[in-house]
Amino acid sequence: EVQLVESGGGLVQPGGSLRLSCAASGFTFSSYWMNWVRQAPGKGLEWVANINPDGSGKNFVDSVKGRFSISRENDKHSMYLQMNSLRAEDTAVYYCTRAGGNYLVYWGQGTLVTVSS
Amino acid sequence: QSVLTQPPSVSAAPGQKVTISCSGSSSNIGANSVSWYQQLPGTAPKLLIYDMDKRPSGIPDRFSGSKSATSATLGITGLQTGDEADYYCGAWDNSLSAYVFGPGTKVTVL
User: Half-sphere exposure of residue B79, counting CA atoms within 13 Å on the CB side?
Assistant: First the structure.
C-alpha cells in the first residue's frame, strides 16, 4: 500500500524558515517524480514544486522561486521542501504527492504551515 | 486567477447527471493530458480521472472524462449524496513549466 506521510509543519513568523519532510513507502521511491501541492485555508489547490527521480530536475511555481527549495534522499525514501523567507500568503496545508505521468496519483494527508506573528 | 477556468458550482438532484467544464489553452490542456481530482470535505484530494478519460482502480464508471482542443469535461452520472465535494482539473503547462489547477467546482446534490 502506498503511503505518503508529511511532517514538519507548524507556526512560524514572517521571514522565518521551515523544512517539510515527506516519508514514502509502498512503492519504488527512486523511480517517480514527486511533488508538493498546497491549499490555503478555504482556497483551491496550488502546485508548488516537483523533483525528478534522481533529484537533478526541479520546477517551482513563480511565487516561491528563490525562496523554496526541493530535495530528496532516495535511500531514505524521503522528499523535502525547504521554505525560507516565509510570508503570510504561504499559510496552507502542504501535500506530498507522487506523480504518474502528467498526473498526481497519490496524496498524503498534509501538514499545516501557518505564517503569522 | 487560475490558468484553467471552471464554474464555481454545479448542482443536481440525486440520480441526475452533472458536467463540469475546464477551459485552458494550447500550452496546457491543448498540449498535455488532463486530470481530475475529487476533494471530499475535510480530506486530501484524490485522483479521479487521468489521461483525460482513464479511471484509477476503485473509481466507479459513473465518473467520466473527455477533452476537446483546449477544454476538458468531467461527467458524473447517477449523482449520489456522497459525490458532494470539490472537483479540480489539472494539467502540465509547457509555457510555465508548472502544473496548473483549475479553481475548483463545488458539486451540490439537491
Answer: 20
**Res. B56 pLDDT band, cuts 50 70 90:** very high
Closest Cα in chain A to B90: A103
The answer to whether the CB atoms of B50 and A103 lie below 8 A apart is yes
Local structure of A63: helix, strand or coil: helix
d(CA B107, CA B76) in angstroms, rounded, equals: 10
Residues of A with Cβ-Cβ distance to B97 under 8 angstroms: 59
From residue B91, how far is each of A21, A33, A44, A71, A114 by CA, in Å?
25, 15, 15, 23, 28
CA distance A29 to A49: 17
Which residue reads 490542456 in cell numbers?
Answer: B29
A41 vs B contacts (CB less than 8 Å) = none
Cα nearest neighbour of A98 on chain B: B47
The C-alpha cell that represents A25 in the structure block:
513507502
pLDDT tens-digit readout, B88-109: 999 999 999 999 999 999 999 9
- A54: exposed, middle or buried (Cβ count in 10 Å: 0-12, 13-18, 19+): exposed
Facing A108 at nearest CB: one of B2, B44, B102? B44
